[in-house]
Design brief:
Elements: H1 2-29, E1 39-45, E2 50-54, H2 59-66, E3 80-85, E4 88-93, E5 104-113, E6 123-125, E7 130-132, E8 138-139, E9 144-151, E10 158-165, H3 169-178, E11 189-195, H4 200-206, H5 208-217, E12 221-222, H6 233-242, H7 265-270, E13 274-279, E14 301-302, H8 304-311, E15 323-324, E16 327-328, H9 329-341, E17 350-356, H10 372-384, E18 391-396, H11 410-416, E19 421-424, H12 429-432, H13 434-443, H14 450-463, H15 488-491, E20 502-505, H16 511-528, E21 540-551, H17 561-566, E22 568-578, E23 583-591, H18 604-610, E24 616-624, H19 639-642
Parallel strand pairs: 11-17, 11-18, 13-14, 13-17
Antiparallel strand pairs: 1-2, 3-4, 4-8, 5-6, 5-7, 5-9, 9-10, 12-19, 15-16, 18-19, 20-21, 21-22, 22-23, 23-24
Helix pairs in contact: 5-10, 6-14, 9-10
């Protein structure tokens, strides 16, 4: 028995060494972009913040883009194609795609949220079916429906499934009857359309026609200095919807639902706005990804039950999880929003948040190009709709791409911090509020955040007659000038996400860089994985991929007193660990004290003098750069740890 254990231990050791060697070889052969992107100008040029502007087709990302695979289109060889117009549904049948003798029958059933105390992860199908055949136009009375088609001689063998969402005016009519007419307030509808992981640069690459419609036809104002305030979707949407940071929410984010949080749609609802919230990819939704979601339906219109139902349909998603039948899930969302906008007057004003995770969340970068036809159709319809004169539309993203090969480039790291955002105002708004619009245009090239977008929504709420509680937030309304000398610290942007300062590249084998990388790995093991230590392998530094030193220019345009007074250097280090080949980016500070600072010297030799082994290192942030699917499945109740963990049962 002892001999067997010894043999097993030796085998495990050999396997671990072999896997580490393979990982080292693969990482050595992987193309890591070392060339630096060339700025073409400045997006923000203030006394304390300079945000560089880059060309979207900068050579440093071209190799990444060349290797990307196209997105699988949703349209295919389906035997049925549904057409939806308002509440009417018609069907076209491609007979050549049916087997001989098949007489097609289609039936629909309602899809509803389970209301008997369950949370967001339950839905139920209606018991009654409504069936139709051929091109008969069917008037639908349910908000969400599942459509199933089968040959009449095999009614239990479905050959087609689709899911549809309809705007039911009765919901709007109820809100309208509850409204109190107030003549001296201005209740504009607010529509927020969000797309996951789209930087301003990637928007310019793959949605150029959308950009043209926004800027030329709709006179939309881009917020070019918008900077994310957290690593992923949750902290950025929380900032947008509450004006708060995650650590300011009075709850355990993992264990409690979000029903009692101060989400801004509640303020709109209190003014009898009709509210709507939808996110596709139910498993990735902001308030549901390893979290409890909502125990009660959060808004008047809430699409989650329909998405849950469609994701259980192999036929509806046979072309990919970004599809529902022959349409993108995003197109399903936009159609419902467009139908809501087309509600006849008089009706209540609306607050709607539409957010799409598919197909952009995990990339590749080029996949957002598939969204262009649907977005163009939606924006052109909005331009000619009656709601155009009584609403504000914001097209935005939460952050740029966070995973994949682009994150091995310096430009990829910059893009991940700079999300897309456009503001579209009614045509008459500038005539009535010239100072607001002038301020918005000035702020287009100032450092801004989602805290500011929230403050702007509060500004619109105040116009609509809301009495709002104070929020301890750094946000400033974009309808007033954002201060020119605004730093990341002033704006609520942590150092890890701040792009205001210049960087210089350092050799990967620089002594201070290696120390910083080792400190980051130690931080992962001892701090970030503390709660899951018994199930996660100890990590070791396999390789430093790249390093940047943040430059504080005391005599130049960036007057960064914090650096000089506190005496520290800040590094951004990309590294790979073993086992598992995880790629991380760490923000690390070395504190040497103000007496050891050599102002204006940014090279590696000067850094070695300032940051010696006896000086303290502080790890501010560690983010994952590559996907970790399958590496941390042993963790079921430790969501935050999953991005760092390599399960011991995989060794």
């Amino acid at each position: 028995m002892t001999r067997l254990r010894s043999a097993l231990a030796q085998t495990v050791c050999v396997l671990m060494l072999a896997s580490t060697a393979v990982l080292w070889y693969l990482s050595r052969e992987r193309p890591i972009e070392t060339a630096r992107p060339r700025p073409t100008g400045l997006l923000v040029n203030s006394s304390v913040c300079q945000l560089p502007e880059f060309h979207p087709w900068d050579p440093t990302v071209l190799e990444v883009l060349r290797e990307e695979r196209p997105l699988t289109p949703c349209s295919g060889d389906s035997p049925v194609r549904l057409t939806q117009l308002g509440r009417t549904l018609t069907m076209d049948v491609h007979r050549d795609r049916l087997r001989a003798g098949c007489r097609l029958d289609c039936c629909l059933r309602s899809v509803r949220r389970e209301q008997d105390g369950h949370s967001d992860d339950q839905f139920r199908l209606g018991e009654q079916e409504v069936c139709f055949r051929g091109r008969t136009a069917l008037s639908v009375s349910e908000q969400f429906v599942k459509v199933t088609c089968a040959c009449s001689d095999e009614p239990d063998v479905a050959i087609f499934e689709d899911f549809r969402a309809f705007f039911i005016p009765e919901v709007d009519r109820l809100r309208s009857q509850q409204r109190v007419s107030v003549s001296d307030v201005q209740q504009l509808s607010v529509y927020l359309v969000g797309i996951d992981s789209v930087s301003t640069l990637n928007f310019r690459r793959f949605l150029p026609k959308v950009r043209e419609v926004l800027e030329t036809d709709l006179q939309a104002v881009p917020m070019l200095g918008l900077t994310k305030v957290g690593a992923n979707t949750l902290p950025n949407l929380v900032a947008l919807l509450t004006g708060l940071r995650l650590d300011q929410l009075n709850q355990s984010l993992r264990e409690e639902p979000y029903d009692h949080q101060p989400l801004i749609w509640k303020h709109f609802s209190s003014l009898n706005y009709l509210t709507m919230y939808t996110e596709d990819m139910s498993n990735m939704a902001t308030f549901n990804f390893h979290r409890r979601g909502f125990l009660t339906q959060p808004t008047d219109i809430y699409l989650r039950p329909l998405h849950l139902a469609s994701e259980q349909s192999r036929l509806a998603q046979r072309r990919g999880d970004h599809c529902v039948g022959h349409r993108l899930t995003f197109e399903l969302q936009l159609q419902l929003l467009q139908d809501l906008m087309a509600a006849p007057d008089p009706s209540s004003p609306h607050f709607a948040l539409v957010f799409s995770n598919a197909p952009s969340h995990a990339g590749p970068l080029s996949h957002i190009g598939a969204l262009q036809p649907g977005l163009l159709q939606f924006l052109r319809a909005y331009r000619t709709s009656s709601r155009r004169n009584s609403s504000v539309l914001i097209l935005f993203s939460d952050h740029g791409m966070r995973f994949g090969p682009v994150m091995r480039t310096e430009l990829g790291g910059y893009e991940s911090r700079m999300p897309l955002l456009y503001v579209i105002l009614p045509p008459w708004y500038e005539r009535q509020y010239p100072r607001r619009v002038a301020s918005l245009r000035v702020n287009s090239r100032r450092l801004t955040t989602f805290f500011d977008v929230h403050a702007t929504l509060r500004h619109l709420l105040a116009d609509a007659g809301a009495s709002l509680p104070n929020v301890p937030s750094p946000g400033l309304s974009l309808f007033a000038p954002v201060p020119e000398p605004r730093s990341c610290r002033d704006a609520g942007v942590d150092p890890a996400w701040c792009t205001c300062r210049r960087h210089v590249a350092l050799p990967a084998d620089h002594a201070v860089v290696v120390r910083a990388a080792v400190a980051a790995v130690r931080h992962i093991d001892t701090v970030l994985l503390r709660a899951a230590r018994d199930r996660c392998a100890r990590l070791g530094l396999l390789r430093v991929m790249s390093a940047l030193l943040t430059v504080s220019e005391g005599g130049g345009p960036v007057q960064d007193t914090e650096y000089s007074l506190r005496g520290f250097d800040e590094l951004t280090v990309q590294l790979m660990t073993a086992p598992g080949g995880a790629e991380f980016e760490a923000t690390v500070r070395c504190y040497s004290g103000p007496g050891d600072r050599e102002r204006g010297t940014a090279g590696g030799q000067a850094l070695a003098v300032r940051c010696r082994p006896e000086h303290r290192l502080e790890v501010l942030e560690v983010t994952r750069l590559n996907l970790y699917r399958g590496q941390s499945d042993c963790l079921t109740h430790h969501h935050d740890e999953r991005r760092y963990c390599y399960c011991t049962d995989l060794l």
